[in-house]
Amino acid sequence: MSRPIHGRLTRSWLLASAFAVALPIVSLPLVAQAQSLALDQALARAAQADPTRPAVEARLKAADAGARQAGVRANPVIGVDLEDLTGTGPYSLVDRAQATVYYQQSLERGGKREARTSLARIEIDLVRLRHETKVLDLFREVELAWVEAMAAEAQVRLAKIRLDIAERAQGEVDRRVKAARDPLFAGARADAQVAEARIILSQAQMTADTTRRALADYWNGGVDFEIDPAALEDTAAAQDIAGEASPVDLALLDAERQTAAARVRVEETKAVQDPTWRAGLRYLNEGRDMAVVVGGSIPLARYDTNRGAIERALAERTAADADLLSGKVVRERQIARLQADLAARASEARRIEAEVLPAAERTVALVREGFNRGGFSYLDVIEAQKVLIDARSRRLDALKAYHTHRAQLARLTGRHAALIPASETVR
Fold this sequence. Notes:
This protein is an alpha+beta fold. It has a domain at 35-71 and 121-268 and 325-424: Outer membrane efflux proteins (OEP). Helix content is 68%, strand content 9%.
């Protein structure tokens, strides 16, 4: 009987050994950790997946075609005039008919073609710069979504700390209740605290999943990434000088001003009348003779001098000049305010970490020690824990506000402009 038992043991040992060897290989994909996602990576992914890129490509092609068309001269005209073909008296027959074949060309004066071409070329830059500002707006949205995801993951960590504190307190209360040192309702209260902490953790995890999906939607990707917790703690940028307003935004305002000035020039050239010259050959049927005919015409600037259009273009140029000046002033004012808010939030987070949290943690430790000796009630423990959790929550709110202000500041200064794809900037 010993041999079958020994054989079964041998087979069991072999199966267990094979399973132990195969288990790490099979479980490798399951334990693979998600890759860390930095802010620059998120912005680059969103820029490459920007759904507006095909539209701007089409607009740039349209603007380029408009620039080519603006430099085209007016088409010549070839025509035929028949005179004295029929009538009364001596003109009742076709013998005295005359036929003229002519070539006619209008001449643009006042620099019309040059003005149109200049305006069309500026409009190409205008299309490009408008799209770049939209990409910077997209970067702001992505950075804000990144901040939300980062803060949501921090909320999960805070909820886990809350649950850990509640469970530890629950264990301490259970021991006191079993020893008849505390009433039963103290244990029920501790159980309620643990249940509430678990609900808060569950909600925080759901919020974190939602924010990660919202961030990944900007590049139609999955949520197989994580954000380094150290990024939330980094407040070094509060010490840096923010800089001037975004060069892209200022370039757009300047391009709009140049466009308005170019339109003024276009409207002014329209006030210059264009002559039309004509030359041709006339055939006289009566004598079978040929004659050269030359003529021309020019409109009289009696009624339409394009004055209204010129005044409108001048007013729009004045408005564009004012927009350029006011836009720079407004952006500088917003940058200064955000810089101050950034420093204030960073200081608040640092002071809570250095001054409030150590005192709150020490208070919790002292109250627990006194509670275990019977010197404090469970309500004192709850209050001390609440002060600690509230301090951590306030610090997290300050850090989230800091990074939110930094995202707004990055938009105003164009800090991420270098991440705009080159195919949309080099034209």
